[in-house]
Amino acid sequence: xxxxxxxxxxxxxxxxxxxxxxxxxxxxxxxxxxxxxxxxxxxxxxxxxxxxxxxxxxxxxxxxxxxxxxxxxxxxxxxxxxxxxxxxxxxxxxxxxxxxxxxxxxxxxxxxxxxxxxxxxxxxxxxxxxxxxxxxxxxxxxxxxxxxxxxxxxxxxxxxxxxxxxxxxxxxxxxxxxxxxxxxxxxxxxxxxxxxxxxxxxxxxxxxxxxxxxxxxxxxxxxxxxxxxxxxxxxxxxxxxxxxxxxxxxxxxxxxxxxxxx
Length: 262
Fold this sequence. Notes:
CATH architecture of the largest domain: 3-Layer(aba) Sandwich
Low-confidence stretches: none
Oligomer: single chain
CATH topology of the largest domain: Rossmann fold
Structural class: alpha+beta
Strand order of the largest sheet: 2-1-3-5-4-6-7
Strand content: 25-35%
Number of helices: 7
Mean pLDDT: 96
Shape: elongated
């Protein structure tokens, strides 16, 4: 099965997504899955997090097109990342790198061959004119060496460092989901090695403090109560059972947090 996924900040009502799909379907017998097109406009880190957490669940051989591209039309490069199981196509702005790291060893090719692009490449829509045709050519069997040279100076992106000791955990907020759960970069497995569920913790963010329980799941506390738990992507998250923790705490991605462990 030939499969392409698409992720962008174009918005669900956009005609841009349909144009990309039209190109893909006209060039290859392919199935297309939308990861999301509702990434916050221009938010590369948000797109990188969503892509990273989704790609491992797709079949081997899937080609993923990621487009959160505020630098479109500038001298930023287009790239193809080849891993042992998946291929990623998009701008060289860090968007694809966390997903590539999640998949394992990878090689990065710069997109240089104009014969693999649409004949008329616009200055504002490389998703349609460059990245989607490249993805279709890959599924049709083009050699990666035909796309362009291997590069090592690609733009990197990571989600910061976290640290866990016997008494504290420090890190940062990397994502807020649709429920208002505040997802951090603190590793859940490492935290569980030193702390059992049903213990109390103290959250410090900016000048705010909030005491809550560290629990196995949201329903372990009453509706409306704060909680800390390890989410499905093995990261510590701060939540409210049936509520919006991000609004209550006025928290945004990128903010530093500290947890005092009991």
